[in-house]
Amino acid sequence: MEYFLEILFGGLTRGSIYALIALGYTMVYGIIELINFAHGEIYMIGAFTGLIIAGVLGAAGFPAAAIFVLAILGAVLYSAAYGYTIEKIAYKPLRGAQRLSPLISAIGMSIFLQNYVMLAQTSDFLPFPSLIPEFKVPWIGHIISSSELIIVVVTILVCIGLTLFIKFTRLGKAMRATAQNRKMAMLVGINVNTVISATFVVGSSLAAVGGVLIASHIGQINYYIGFIAGIKAFTAAVLGGIGSVPGAMLGALILGQTEAFATGYVSSDYEDVFAFALLVLILIFRPAGIMGKEPVQKV
Amino acid sequence: MTKMLELKNVNTFYGNIQALYDVSLHIDHSEIITLIGANGAGKSTTLMTICGMLTPRTGDVIYENESIRGQSADKVVASGISQVPEGRLIFPELTIKENLDMGAFLRTDKAGIARDMEYCFDLFPILAERRNQQGGNLSGGEQQMLAIARALMARPRLLLLDEPSMGLAPLVVRQIFEIIKKINKESGTTIFLVEQNANLALKIGHRGYVMENGKIVLTDSCETLLANEDVKRAYLGL
Predict the structure, then answer these.
(1) How close does chain B come to A248, measured CA to CA in Å?
(2) Could you tell me if residue B129 is inside a domain?
(3) Which residues contact A208 (CB under 8 A, 6 or more apart)?
């Protein structure tokens, strides 16, 4: 039983990180129908930013909790700026082009950012300090570590915050309207360019939170971490139904659990096999994903 | 009456394909102007040119004595022009109330928005009943009502309607045209009505334009157009 719960919480932690990244994929896809392949790199840049901030503040003697919060905030700001700029440089000029063009641009941006970080930083793995405050978790301390608990709690809060933001704020409503009908959104006076930029900023911010949290949990990073995490999060988004925000959360949760149980009960060699087999199954029986809508054929 | 909107020798293109040829027309304050023409004549393109969704290659769009040519769509909405587009374009996963809220997107006067929403619910009681349902679940006629109400939420001075009768039962069409007349009469909102249903459109309009292949070929009072032999033959099926 204890082993089972341990795996369950491990899966929850994984799922949390996937969710934080998957939300960016799904939101961008919802608005401009683009798979932003550079999104994993935003997550990686968030982790590197966190590392640099933690290094500087640590040397300056800041308390651990302050470093943790400031590292996340800094990573969020820096990654958001990257997300905003990438959209302006790599996608906006291609709006209205055929769908393959921005996709290729996204892949190019992803490769560029990986190599840029590799050259600017290093190609080796860098140790990442454990920023998440350590404490003894009451009652369930033997099955979940404090850093896992914080990852899960932060993710839940972020998901609730995002849901409220999309549901109730003016910008959130504008995002939903733009996703449902961009032409009509323009006709009611929504500045669609602003909405698209905001979507990239929000998605990138979430990825940066995930980047700092997981780097701190695992303890090392390199320029390539965004690729793997990005592919997994993308899988989660497709699983849940790309374009759907609750779908991405659910897809990430399911993917995290699948991997955790495959690792825990079969072998860690098989975690990817199970993850992608699940994806294939879902795509066969529900091509639009769990919460995605079947595309309506317009007559 | 004074000129509210004027198109001067407008030529609009989609890429290299010309859709509007030298279109000139004007709309006076508080008028109902109808633009009739066959499918593909350039009627919707004319509306999209006014709304700032398309920029004419040459020619000018003058609104309240200022050129709005090339202005972005949100600026045009802010200046008091709203469109009810062809096919209604309801936000399917927003509730009716949220759809109406989106219509008032650029407004900040909460009390005024609430008042206008009540006005829309008075005009279309069915919307009030279903205010918390998703827009996509409405019937075609109800969606058309919602699209008109959504445009009214911007409190436009000029309301552009693109084929409000399309795909609707005759009874519903008549109901909607009555309401268009009512909107014009009660609030003095100027109306530019684009229709293939020439018979109905010419009956509620003051003046009309006839469009063929991207050109304005005829303009007169609606009464005269209804009696015109060419119009009768081509558009009224008589």
Answers:
(1) 18
(2) no
(3) A42, A43, A45, A46, A49, A50, A72, A75, A76, A78, A79, A80
Asked if residue B230 has pLDDT above 80, the reply is: yes
- pLDDT reading at B227 higher than 80: yes
Q: Note whether B77 contacts A: Cβ–Cβ < 8 A.
A: yes
Q: How far apart are CA A158 and CA A150, in angstroms?
A: 12
Cross-chain CB nearest to B154 (options A184, A186, A188): A188
Distance CA A10, CA A138 (A): 17
Within 8 A by CB and 6+ apart from A11, the residues are A256, A257, A258, A259, A260, A261
Query: Is residue A4 a part of any domain in this protein?
Result: no
| Residue B125 maps to a domain | no
Looking at every residue in chain A, the average pLDDT score rounds to 93
Confirm whether B223 is domain-assigned: yes
By the 8 A CB rule, do B192 and B27 touch?
yes
Looking at beta carbons, which residues of chain A come within 8 Å of B150?
Answer: 188
* Contact flag A186-B74 (C-beta cutoff 8 Å): yes
**Nearest to B92, CA basis, from A189, A165, A198, A185:** A185
Exposure string for A37-58, b = 16+ CB within 10 A, e = fewer:
bbbbbbbbbbbbbbbebbeebe
Of A173, A176, A181, nearest to B89 by CB-CB distance is: A181
**Full residue range of the structural domain in which residue B180 is found:** 3-88+156-236
Q: Is residue B136 part of a domain?
A: no
Q: pLDDT grade, residue A299 (50/70/90)? A: very low
What is the predicted pLDDT for the residue at A296? 55
Number of domains in chain A: 1
What integer pLDDT is reported at residue B218 of this predicted model?
A: 94
pLDDT in tens, A21-45: 999 999 999 999 999 999 999 999 9
Q: What is the mean pLDDT of chain B?
A: 94
Q: Which residues pair with B63 in a beta bridge?
A: B5, B66
Residue A277 in any domain: the answer is no
B101 touches chain A (CB under 8 A): yes
Q: Within 13 Å and on the Cβ side, how many CA atoms surround A280?
A: 6
Residue A81: domain span:
16-229
In this complex, which of A180, A183, A188 lies closest to B105 when CB atoms are compared?
A188
Question: Quick check: B27 pLDDT over 50?
Answer: yes
What phi and psi values does residue B158 have, to the nearest 5 degrees? -125, 120
Q: What is the CATH number of the domain that holds B195?
A: 3.40.50.300
B residues 32-71 near A, CB within 8 Å? 51, 53
Chain B partners of A173 at a C-beta cutoff of 8 Å?
Answer: 94, 98, 101-102
B-chain CB neighbours of A190 within 8 Å are 74, 102, 105
Query: B32-37 and B207-212: which strand pairing?
Result: parallel
How distant is the Cα of B223 from the closest Cα of chain A, in angstroms? Answer: 32
Tokens read off for A130: 């454990």
Question: Phi and psi of B208, rounded to 5°?
Answer: -140, 155
Q: Which residues of B touch A30 (CB under 8 A)?
A: none
